[in-house]
């Protein structure tokens, strides 16, 4: 029977398209390459687990499923041993899967420059401190966030075209009359060409831009002074569209807060092949909490809702075909 199984595996491999697998192995990310390799061999996950077990490697079917979905990444020594065994079982070049795990988030080559690297997040945080100091504003601005709903629009050329934010805040000191909004464009963006629109219960004040990080900061003036305990609602948007292909949207928070909802809507043209949410405790920490999200083909959108925001980063990433 083992011989018959091996024969069936070989036949299925011959029917697979090698181009897709070769591309995934070259560019990643890890979970896409693993999924393509398993599909090329025509093996159900139970058979993959059986082959691993025969080599003395114990990995559950659930773990294998998480690995190929991008919901988990092999990290422990036993898991890395399993990845090396998978290269043999799936008849892949040596180090082809292990190599893709060297990247913190396993992105494809064209995404390494487009994604939010640890260094870019640290630099952006430093720049934000300087911009806020220039405004004479503290990080929280005297406001606590009760609710924040963001809508991100991806344009026809797959660029980050626009972001709209709807805030519900409460003042924790007297005299608060403004909010400093920050927009961090994709790598290669040009803040000088971005436009801010005050949509509801606010107007724009001073604007500051930092070209190297693609960051824009703007005062939104309420036209009234809040007392401690007062709530306020306001809405604004930033037209961007100045960078190349977008692969993710990340939102950072310094402290715990209220509910956060993020909706990403994709314009005309192709839809991404998959989307997932992720979290990151700090700019220097690896990403975690990967969870595949359902993309609505009818509404061309995907979303997440976080009942209570914690400090760190939260976002949605997507893979194009």
Automatic annotation (TrEMBL):
Top-rank taxon: Bacteria
Low complexity bias locations: 1-17
Region of interest (Disordered), residue spans: 1-23
Protein name: Uncharacterized protein
Organism in which the protein naturally occurs: Streptomyces capillispiralis
